[in-house]
Amino acid sequence: MKQSMKLAFSGVMAALATVLLFLTGVAPVATLALPAIAGCLLIPVVVERSGIPGETRCNSVTKEQRRALLGLLKDFSLEVEGFRPIAEAIVTSGGVSLKEIDPRTMESKRVPGLYFAGELMDADAYTGGYNLQIAFATGRLAGNSVCTP
């Protein structure tokens, strides 16, 4: 069973990634800047696809490379080949405080037009589908809120 999956970091998140490259200074791209914006298991894939050598210092990344990284993060595709064992299932804990999010819309109370869903928020539950329900419900609410004036 092979399926294609597209991860689309929002324009805000992708732009944040390129800003992080600036702010992290002399650290190698593969070790410091990308963990903040991509899951640690995705880092080698993102670095390889970016065309930026992993040992490149963040302050040496060119404008063209930053733009390429921005484009990659806004349109990142993966091919899923199957499921992993349930023993390897994980849930991310932590994230944006629920006090910072309007529960009626999932919009940030600090940054108008920025919406959160799922594991971006500091909300997690026991296994058994609860975390998926949180992700689906908040994702639907955030999506509907974005589209409703």
Structure overview:
- With 149 residues, the chain is α+β, with helices and mostly antiparallel strands.
- The longest helix is centred in the last third of the chain and has 18 residues, at 130-147.
- α1 (11-23) packs antiparallel against α4 (63-74).
- The protein has helices at residues 11-23, 29-33, 43-50, 63-74, 130-147; strands at 3-7, 76-80, 101-102, 107-108.
- The chain has a two-stranded antiparallel ribbon with strand order 1-2. A two-stranded antiparallel sheet has the order 3-4.
- Helices cover 38% and strands 9% of the residues.
- It contains 5 helices and 4 strands, in the order βααααβββα.
- The mean pLDDT is 75.
- 17% of the residues are buried.
Topology (SSEs and partners):
Elements (H helix, E strand, L loop, with lengths): L2 E5 L3 H13 L5 H5 L9 H8 L12 H12 L1 E5 L20 E2 L4 E2 L21 H18 L2
Helix pairs in contact: 1-4
